[in-house]
Amino acid sequence: MSKIDNFVQSINDGYNFKGKSLILGGGMVDGECQSECLVRIPLKTMNRHGLIAGATGAGKTKTLQILAEQLSDQGVPVLLMDIKGDLSGIAAASGGHPKIDERHQKIGIPFKPGVSPVEFLTLSGEKGARLRATVTEFGPVLFSKILGLNDTQGGMVAVVFKYCDDRGLPLLDLKDFKKTLQFLTNEGKEEVEEEYGRMSTASVGAIMRKILEIEQQGADKFFGETSFDVEDLIRTNRLDQGMVSIIRLTDIQDRPKLFSSFMLQMLAEIYATFPEQGDAEKPKLVIFIDEAHLVFEEASKALLNQIEAIIKLIRSKGVGIYFCTQNPEDIPEDILGQLGLKIQHALRAFTAKDRKAIKMAAQNYPDSEYYKTEDLITQMGIGEALVTVLNEKGIPTPLVHTLLRAPQSRMDVLSDHEMDAILNASKIIDKYNKEVDRESAYEMLGAKIEEVNKEEKQAELKEQNEKAKKTTTRKRTEKSAIEKVMGNTTTRQIGRTIARELTRGLLGVLGIGGRRR
């Protein structure tokens, strides 16, 4: 058999799956696409997580789009984190193009335009249904990890949560948490020290600074009500297509802590909410995280450990997570080792550092007798990728250079008019965009502080009145004594004066004491 025949047979043997699958494209050898061998991904393994890597402009986003629309067509809901703002086109059908037809002819499959049902979500000021969560839903451990606190500070956060739980004080937003923390170190200091121990002033100051840091990244808009229900991520439409929920994140690229906080909370909520599913015929939900390096570059060691633990466990809930980034090195090694599907687009070598990174990237893929991976990574064109997946038995397939199919949806973004039409038809936007600020810890403790201050003021006024009363009584007593003394003295003085005047008058009459002549 020739080299090409051997290649076609090895790819067909490796990628010939019995169950439903997604079609990525056609296998290539010696720079030519072989139309008789298709590169597929078993639908049932899409909960095994994956990586889409490659340089800017190499086609990562379009690969993500290809996977998302095919998952939707097979009834699997998808969550896309759109940081660059170029995924909205999945809601509109492709207009077609001669180059698309030419590409699909090489692959050996017809091109058919299609559209997916889309829901737009937002963390901040973008258009869409607002995503929120309460501080209580984060819990003390996750909240402490997001803030990057040490064990002592984390213990104080736990005290705040316990105090609020014991007294029925809802912790909904950041002002609730700050108010409670301030109360426990001021007005409620004696109460908390007696029941939970002393609260360090230095640690309180450090926690407040950490909260200020995430507030500056927009976390004050994220914490609060109405909390997002993750069940709204797994809806299908009347055609049994999975809903594609697109979180518009274009305005938080410079706020990675908010992004990672949101992502981790959502994964934790999904894990806590979804029932065990195991390896079913298809996943319950697939999540694509674009620009994934933003999740990890600002994350603390504790936060990374939490992400790693959730990614390990969430597969059993039927949830697949796919990271899109420029280089596999952007993903922590412990997490990278858990990713079953790997799609590597081209990387460019401009410097010695780039060449070293490419060499490291090549080591993440199986050896192949048909390619020198390290060289091929730098030579691939746009819309080409190296692919390895897990087969239905969980075994990695042979590495294959793939000419990727084109998205069936629009490669460009929606117009404002098209986006507004989707938003107006949303079934959940009214549910989440209504402002809610019910009575919570902030208001309750504020009222308690006001009542305490009122009682203290009344007690102070009472004390002042009693003091004033005692002072008045004492003064009256002193005055009476003085008046008595002064009365006697004055009487004696007046008596002496009168006697003296009488004496003078008498002596004058008698001529005594007058001037002698």
Topology readout:
Layout: H1 3-14, E1 21-29, E2 32-42, E3 50-53, H2 60-73, E4 78-82, H3 98-107, E5 118-122, E6 129-130, H4 135-147, H5 151-167, H6 174-185, H7 189-196, H8 201-215, H9 219-222, E7 244-248, H10 256-273, E8 285-289, H11 293-297, H12 301-314, E9 319-325, H13 333-336, E10 341-344, H14 352-362, H15 373-379, E11 384-388, E12 400-404, H16 416-424, H17 429-433, H18 441-510
Parallel strand pairs: 3-9, 3-10, 4-7, 4-8, 5-6, 5-7, 8-9
Antiparallel strand pairs: 1-2, 1-12, 10-11, 11-12
Q: Largest sheet, if any?
A: 12 strands, mixed
The number of strands is: 12
Major β-sheet strand ordering: 2-1-12-11-10-3-9-8-4-7-5-6
Domains (count):
2
- CATH homologous superfamily of the largest domain - what is it? P-loop containing nucleotide triphosphate hydrolases
Q: What is the approximate shape?
A: elongated
Range of strand content: 5-15%
Q: What would CATH call the class of the largest domain?
A: Alpha Beta
Helix proportion: 40-55%
Uncertain runs:
489-494, 496-517
Oligomer: single chain
Distance from N terminus to C terminus (CA atoms, Å) equals 173 Å
Name the structural class: alpha/beta
Number of helices: 18
CATH architecture of the largest domain: 3-Layer(aba) Sandwich
Overall pLDDT metric: 84
Order of helices and strands: HEEEHEHEEHHHHHHEHEHHEHEHHEEHHH
CATH topology of the largest domain: Rossmann fold
